[in-house]
Amino acid sequence: MCESHTPVKRAAQKNVIGQTIKKVRLSLKPDVSQQDLAGRLAARGIQMDRSAIARIESGDRFVRDFEIIGIAAALRVPLTRLFNKE
Q1: How far is CA 54 from the centre of its chain?
Q2: What is the pLDDT of residue 39?
Q3: Which of 36, 54, 68, 81 could bridge across to 77 with cysteines, CB 3.0–4.6 Å?
């Protein structure tokens, strides 16, 4: 890296549940795609597209409290499961 450029620091992770959401989503039989999850959320009145779910799972998007409740319901898991780091 040359002297005129400074390293770009990645922003801090914006949620602690993203990786768990992905793990739970993919552990279901059959697994639930991001698009499927978006559809399940829409059925509950929560508008979130596939890319928003991808950003949540990567930690690049904040998650609102009502979205967390909706995601847990859509995945049919207890709310506390999304906060477990198993």
Answers
A1: 6
A2: 98
A3: 81
